[in-house]
Amino acid sequence: MEHNNLKLQVGVKALIFNKNKDILLLKRIPERKGEDSCWDIPGGRINNNRSLLSNLLREIKEETSLNSISNPVILSAQDVFFRGSRIVRVTYVARVTSSRVVKLSSEHSEYKWVKFDDLMKIKDLDKHVRIIIKDKDKVSLIKSFINKV
Tens digits of per-residue pLDDT, 100-124? Predict the structure, then answer.
């Protein structure tokens, strides 16, 4: 695949766990007619004048209204080629520290909390999340993070 002349962007995402060791998934509304919706994790593209972490916290708050996120740790970096752009997607693992109810932005239609071990059973899970949870080393890091909750 030819990747010259692509616009470079950076995105941040987070696997967010609650006190019950469940992970937050958001049902993404398709950006264009004919696209499929899928279950994804919170996050989005960065603003260049802010740090990665600041952008992550902003995206989480915008998409979910959650603002009590503690100890985000970088889990993965992926190259995503999408609509003429190369997106470096940095995925964190983090925990929510309050019991605040999730309030979705207009980008998502629903949300759910699921057990990590049930993620692979979700048919329409974002393919980049699926790649992370298929990686044994990443799974080991995620599970050690979950067990600290």
Answer: 889 999 999 999 999 999 999 999 9
